[in-house]
Amino acid sequence: MATMAGLALGVIVAWVVLVGATRGVLHARATGQPAVRFDDRRGSPQWWARLTGTVGFILLVLVPIANLAGVASAAPLDRPEVGFAGLVVAVLGTGGSVISQAAMGGS
User: Fold this and answer.
1) In a structure prediction context, what are the per-residue pLDDT tens digits for the chain, which is 107 residues long?
2) Do 7 and 1 touch, CB atoms closer than 8 A?
3) What's the pTM value of the predicted model, to 2 decimals?
4) Which of 15, 38, 45, 71 is deepest in the core (most CB within 10 A)?
């Protein structure tokens, strides 16, 4: 399972580079404004989306790190086919994010 955790971290890094950093730079160049705003009104849907997304991303990173550190995982989920299915979903999600961001163009 350590190999799967390493692959998961690799997919996360690829997503951050492809979607986060690259698209952020392209957006800033095209619009002159940062891609991420932090001035959403507290309690607004945008604020909640940013908060839950941030918590989710932190958990996304911590789970494979915990696995590599030797923390035991839930037995029903500790199967190679479950890990492989998760990796496939993550790769497809990363590809979908890249395609969606490209389709939005400068908007």
Assistant:
1) 568 788 888 888 888 887 777 777 877 888 887 777 778 889 999 889 889 988 988 988 898 899 889 888 788 887 889 888 988 987 898 788 778 878 876 66
2) no
3) 0.60
4) 15
Q: How far apart are CA 31 and CA 28, in angstroms?
A: 5
Write down the residue that tokens 């604020």 correspond to. Answer: 47
* Integer angstrom CA distances of residue 66 from 2, 55, 81, 107: 10, 16, 20, 38
Per the CB < 8 A criterion, the answer to whether 87 and 4 are in contact is: yes
> 8: which 2 tokens?
């998961």
Alpha helices in 16-44 (DSSP H): 23-31
Give the CB-side neighbour count of residue 12, counting CA atoms within 13 A: 17
